Amino acid sequence: MEQITIIGSGNMARSIAVRMISARHSVQILGRNGEKTRELVEFLGAGAQGGGEGAVVEGGIVFLAVPFAEAKKSVIFYGDALAGRVVVDICNPVDLATFDSLVTPVGTSAAEEIALHTTADAFVVKAFNTCFAKPLELGSVARVPLDVFIAGDSEQAKLKVSSVVAASGLRPIDVGPLRRARDLEAMMLLVMALQVSPAHENFNWDTSLNLLP
């Protein structure tokens, strides 16, 4: 059983926590909004505990379930407390005003930018950015388990994330080094734009990206 820390208390934090608890992992929710954090912990029930932003990080795997800008602030705030831990970036740095561009500089990714601000003794991994909250909480779409694409420069860190992904009923897919996060994020720019397009009213943030044999 793994100890998981999730920074954030929104929809993705909830969905990741549900999947982790389904695999009998212990989950710590750390959020700025005390009321939302308490409500999420109460919803999750046994196996979950909450804390404020300044609480001690307990998980060996730390999920950054917050937007890109907040994720950078979080790794700076926690600093050396993240040393030796696997830090999972799940964000998509999409311009939400237009859904037409990324807010990251050309030639990099949110994950790589976050890694630059993270203590050198932590292991940054990109994962779960291709999953939307609703299908992730359910674990499948059309009875097909979700694929979770995983990028990172540490093979051991990726194996650790892959293990908790598989245990939660999802399929981990290693896509290579952390720079592959650029491709994952660019791909999601298109997928997210489709969710808000009037040409695709049947899409409602409930789709998934899966590789079928």
From TrEMBL:
This protein's UniProt keywords: Oxidoreductase
A GO molecular-function annotation: oxidoreductase activity
A family per Pfam: F420_oxidored
Keyword Iron recorded: no
Recorded superkingdom: Bacteria
UniProt domain Pyrroline-5-carboxylate reductase catalytic N-terminal: residue ranges: 3-93
Cited InterPro entries: NAD(P)-bd_dom_sf (IPR036291), P5C_Rdtase_cat_N (IPR028939), STEAP_metalloreductase (IPR051267)
Keyword Oxidoreductase: yes
Annotated PANTHER family: DUDULIN-RELATED, REDUCTASE
Protein name: NADP oxidoreductase
Taxonomic source organism: Arthrobacter psychrochitiniphilus
